[in-house]
Amino acid sequence: MVEQNEFCSLKARFRGFYPVVIDVETAGFNSETDALLEIAAMTLKMDNSGWLQADSSLHFHINPFPGAKLQPEALSFNGIDPKNPLRGAINEYDALRKIFEMIDIGIKSCNCNRAIMVAHNAAFDHSFLMAAVARTSLKRNPFHPFVTFDTAALSGLVLGQTVLAKACAVAGISFDSNEAHSALYDTERTAVLFCELVNRWKRLGGWPIIESL
Asked: Residues 30, 127: contact at Cβ < 8 Å?
């Protein structure tokens, strides 16, 4: 038997994984050739009763890597002007290094093994993150190389919606469409949505599992 209060931790709840919510804004759909322009990351925490909630966040505007493609349709969609000096953009290496440092602290404090990405349509964000890691030769990538938690899939199951704004509406989470396609705002909304999905499962009696597997 496992004591129930042992489940009130990220380590126990997610099998040693440390969930981190990520959103990226890009200059196209090809992670190998198109620029990463913005990234936000939000860590999560669990209270003493096992309820999941948002924790700390970081957000950076990114300078396009040398030779990166800037697709006009993508820039029109997200409204980003990569040449605007007011963006305060930094390079990929510095942005990822700072995010990874925050995540490493969280992993250690929660006794987890490694991070797992939480994102809406996670395959997209994961591909751009991994491509940036490869370009910058960062050696201590805390994220699992292919496993993710996709809130689009989870929302389709729980809420019957896969679009972020619609899933938030069904879940009773406020969503300002005028703020959408900002990496920080989308990360915050995705984090709130993921916490609601996990906590809703708990409220329905689906967690904790008393018998160890």
From this structure: no
Biggest CA pair distance of the chain = 59
pLDDT, one tens digit per residue, over 42-73 is 999 999 889 999 999 999 999 999 999 999 99
Question: How far, in Å, CA of 26 to CA of 45, rounded?
Answer: 28
* Residue 47: φ, ψ to 5°: -80, 180
**What is the Cα–Cα distance from 99 to 97, expressed in whole angstroms?**
6
**Calpha distance 64→67 (Å, rounded):** 8
8 Å CB contact between 129 and 22: yes
Q: Decide if 33 contacts 10 (C-beta within 8 A).
A: no
Helices (H), the chain: 10-13, 72-78, 92-109, 122-136, 151-158, 164-171, 183-203
Task: State which amino acid sits at residue 61.
Answer: H
Handedness of CA 180, 186, 190, 191 (dihedral sign): negative
CB atoms within 10 A of CB 201: 13
Residue 62 to residue 211: CA distance in whole angstroms: 46
d(CA 14, CA 111) in angstroms, rounded, equals 12
Task: Give the C-alpha separation, 210 to 24, whole Å.
Answer: 37
Indicate whether this model's pTM tops 0.90. yes
Helix H or strand E segment including 79: none
Q: Which residues are catalytic?
A: 181
Phi, psi (degrees; rounded to nearest 5) at 191: -65, -45
Query: Does 126 have pLDDT greater than 60?
Result: yes
